[in-house]
Design brief:
Elements (H helix, E strand, L loop, with lengths): L6 E5 L2 E9 L4 E4 L2 E4 L5 E8 L27 E7 L22 E9 L7 E11 L6 E5 L2 E2 L10 E3 L10 E7 L16 E10 L14
Antiparallel strand pairs: 1-2, 2-5, 3-4, 6-7, 7-12, 8-9, 8-13, 9-10, 11-12
């Protein structure tokens, strides 16, 4: 479980392994460029267990139980973006990244549900992690919708809600204090980029309770 880009996280007494599976696309190269007509597929596989326990690994493909139909046009998804200020009045565009910031400064992150066909849908945050470009380390920011309880500075992840007219249950905001990874406890690559990744779920209250964690408090 330490190869193929697997990331290992220890939360309490639980060990979590995360592997992102990406499909291969068929490239077509001609004189003036390379294209593909294959659609990209990204799948996050997560495995949890207690150290010292004996497990058998298997998988079962289940047919999901779908709720009531919602007829609408277009597509909806989840977007993670970085705000320029604590009021979330403007955001950094994608082409402006990577950002260069001083250590120990606040960084304002937001996740939102795009083009939701139903205003009653709720965006749940299972966890958010940060990892360097090398992929050799990972740092838990949020777990089960709450700040990492094992972080020695719990105030580094401050949760906040949006102001109207933004649907509260479809936008999640939190603030962290910027940091840098130290491979082997030393500043080896001060310019190494840090990436953020969150695992979310779109929940419909009609199908059961939507446990929002600390965002629902």
């Amino acid at each position: 479980m330490d190869g193929c880009g697997a990331r290992r996280v220890m939360v309490g007494k639980t060990v979590i392994y995360m592997v992102e599976v990406i499909n291969k696309v068929q490239a077509i190269s001609l004189n003036y460029g390379t294209i593909t007509r294959d659609s990209p597929v990204r799948l996050l596989v997560e495995c949890r267990f207690q150290p010292g326990s004996v497990l058998t690994v298997s998988y079962l493909v289940k047919t999901p139980t779908l709720g009531a139909e919602v007829h609408t046009q277009g597509m909806f998804g989840v977007q993670l973006r970085i705000a320029k200020d604590a009021q979330y009045s403007s955001y950094y565009p994608q082409y402006h990244q990577p950002l260069q910031m001083l250590l120990g400064k606040p960084l304002y992150l937001e996740m939102r549900l795009l083009n939701a066909p139903d205003p009653s849908l709720v965006l749940l945050v299972h966890f958010c992690v940060a990892y360097p470009r090398s992929g050799t380390s990972v740092w838990v920011l949020l777990y089960n919708g709450c700040p990492n309880p094992l972080d020695p500075a719990p105030q580094q992840a401050v949760l906040s809600g949006p102001l109207p007219p933004s649907p509260y249950g479809q936008t999640r905001r939190f603030t962290i204090s910027t940091f840098q990874f130290l491979p082997d406890g030393e500043f080896k690559d001060p310019d190494e980029e840090i990436y953020f990744m969150c695992s979310t779920e779109i929940c419909s209250p009609r199908d059961g309770p939507c446990i929002e964690g600390c965002f629902g408090q």
